[in-house]
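Section 5.1 Outputs to date
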Amino acid sequence: MSCRVGGDRPGIEFGKASSLGRERRFVRMSKLAGVERIHLMGIGGSGMSSLARLLSPRHVVSGCDLEHGTAVETLEALGIACATGHSSEHLERFDPQLVIYSSAVAEGCGELDAARRKGIRTARRGEALSWLFNEAQGVGVAGTHGKTTTSSMIGLILDRAALSPTLYVGAEVQDIGTNARLGSGPLFVAELDESDGSFEYFHPSLAIVTNIDWDHVDHFRSREEVVEAFLRFSAGLKPGAPLVVCAEDEGVQSLLQRLSECGARGPVLRYGWGRAWEWGAFDIRHRPGGGISCTVCRQGEDLGRLEMAVSGEHNVLNALAALAASEALGLSFAAAAGTLGSFRGAKRRLQTLGLRRGVLVIDDYAHHPAEIAASLGAMRKVYPDRRLVVVFQPHRYSRTAAFLDPLAAALRGADCVLLLPVYGAGEAVLPSVSSQCIADRMRADGCACRLCGDEKEALAALDSLVEEGDVLLTLGAGSVSRLGGLFLSGENSGR
């Protein structure tokens, strides 16, 4: 049996997978057959809370986390019982048949060890998510950068086409209002995480690789190791699955040169600048105040203009990936481009928060040097005549140590930089690694930067530093996301 998913253009012939089109069939696969009660350790994290949303309609879900934060409170409001901390007592209280744990839960954790001693099955988050994904018509978005926005774009396109996809994205899709939702259709759009190698559990029916860069230095020792992981991921695609890749990326080029080694047999759809690839963009125009447009071509044929509200050339590349995937799924360029025209982005991806004292406040998740450079470059194109003030919080000691010089170089794109202390994200403190190391490198090149001991000190500094007409950009993957809202509220302000 084969299936065409929507539209009037030829779609992917999914073969056996298309027999799974009955409503929510994929949540009743053999891996979860007979499992009624599931306990999630680290349930307050973004990935785990999203997984809880997908599992709770068909299972009794409980969880625990070290902090009783907003995400936990939201899950409790949905009827999911949550405990604070990790304790073997949770196993007695919730009596789970399966324990799923996040990467933040270290091996040797007492609750996890107790579950194994009791004979309770355990699984990593990525493995458990793959059980749902692999039984669906999975659209998997992988890559070091850009996968959240790209998967959000694809999810929104499919949603607007009334295909009711299941979504699992790394941040809230503003136009949908959530980052995870169980759909009724056969398609499952998921952002696949390479940080711990767990994306190798997934076997997409269609895969996107946005780029391949060295990151997650606690897991990968070099970019070559990252390429090897993406080769293994590519080898796991379902037979005949299309692979959509950014031809402009050096890491992807390394992957393409070696694809024959991994046995991938599906079509490869490349995207990038100009007319050289299967999908291309040219005549890029930046709109002052926000937005970007380009002409899109397929196989050298001009399809028309793409007008987007989001900014940055990196988002043009993300859009090309989404357009290529959408057509492979049977949707027209006109329909997909129309949806992208209204796409407002994912939260914390150059998200405009508001205006105070004539200062425009924007928040962004960028924490890798390549992401920082892309975000600052986009802001320079959108606000060419405005002063750019950046508050940056380095993320993880291991990443900061590996990228000290590239981080300093990327931040030089701002007019003024405030540096918060490193956000360890559970890593042990490295006394030799700090924000001071970045500041020293920036000052040596004559760049303006200031060290702030905490968010209160940063807010006080901003209060005296920023001026009407400035753009304030908060950057980082940690608690810095709070700072923009605090500035807008006037907290700790004398004005």
